[in-house]
Write the structure tokens for this entry.
Amino acid sequence: MKHTALAAYRTFLEPAFRRPEFVQTAALCVREGKKGPEILLVSSLTTKRWILPKGWPMEGRTLAEAALQEAWEEAGVQGSVEADSTGSFSYRKAVKGGIPVTCRCEVFRVDVDALADDWPERGRRQREWVTPREAAKRVEEPELKAILREIGS
């Protein structure tokens, strides 16, 4: 009886109360440094932790194109984006109204040609070039750490 009740809960009730997964897009901004590849991290707006430039999908743009736009807005990045995702990571995002939601963030590599001195979120974020190993230490999400470590290997 206990097994049947648990199976019924998992089949019918649990999905009804589970929040849907939200999708975001992130830019893995890379340049070739003196000692190998470097990753551009930006500070988040609220917690100031180190993250990749990221945001919500944009109407009329692919996820890759939206990632490149986020890289421009959040870090002043000018470059080219790969069409295929490098990987993805999940994280909890606080949204207006209280309850955090789970987001799956698709990561797209951006090869950086230049950084602008003036960009839309200048003054609201910090940006810093670091090695892939250092980037993996600074971000919180385990799946993102793994993606960053692969760049450095």
